[in-house]
Amino acid sequence: MSEFTKMVENMECDVYHLLPPKQILEHCMSMTLIDMKADGCDGPALERGLGAVWMASHARIFQYAPIASGDFITYRTFPRVIEGNRYIYYVEILRGDTLVVRFDASYIPVDKTARHVLRIAQVEPLWKTPSRTAVSRNLHRLRPACAFSPCGSDTVRWSDCDCNGHMTSGAYMSMACDALGYWESETPHYLRMLQLDFCSEVRPGTLLHFERGEDFGLQYLRGVKPDGTVAFVAALVY
To answer: What does the pLDDT look like over 70-93, one tens digit per residue?
Structure first.
């Protein structure tokens, strides 16, 4: 287990003066990448060893209290867990001794050329330490049964993308929150739960059409490419 403490900067915060979902997601994912590097199997090591890249397949946030500018928060990370043919990383965010965020994410190793998922057995020799066992938190793909209806669109910008020319996880998060009206209330609030399923890569200039639905108190959003391919599915409570 590792811990990283930082102060929340004013420039990181949103219109509610709170740390927004995008920053929470990106901070937590950054901490898992730091752990991967320390354990010998970050992106460059995976590419050198197996010609593969890491891809996030799902990410989920549960938030129990707001995080405001000036707060000192600690990111607590945990070693990888193997579930099926994927790695699960858990991160907790604490303010003092109080748990304010629980973050879960799954990563899969993908052959850079053939674009197929590698077997975990191929990747395990690259790590310095063994994986750990943990009770599953059931981080599985969203399967909404509700009806969906169109609710707008947005174009992916270069500023939404990483060095590979693909939309970043944080950009998916902000796009989903914008489309579901997260910041439209005059009353400050914070994210209670959000899960993102990354379904296909998205490049700059792509026009994503949004479809919205609701089921058992969860608001769902699908981002669909012009060819009909689903780019992402999100579920949100705030």
So the answer is: 999 999 999 999 999 999 999 999
76 close to 3: Cβ distance less than 8 angstroms: yes
- pLDDT band with cut points at 50, 70 and 90 for residue 171: very high
Euclidean distance between CA atoms 77 and 3, whole angstroms: 6
Which tokens belong to 52?
Answer: 């593969």
What does the alpha-carbon distance between residue 97 and residue 62 come to, in Å, rounded to a whole number?
A: 17
Q: List C-alpha distances in Å: 114 to 53, 62, 117, 168, 229.
A: 11, 35, 9, 22, 20
Task: Give Cβ neighbours of residue 15 (< 8 Å, ≥ 6 apart).
Answer: 183
How crowded is the C-beta side of 4, counted as CA atoms within 13 Å? 15
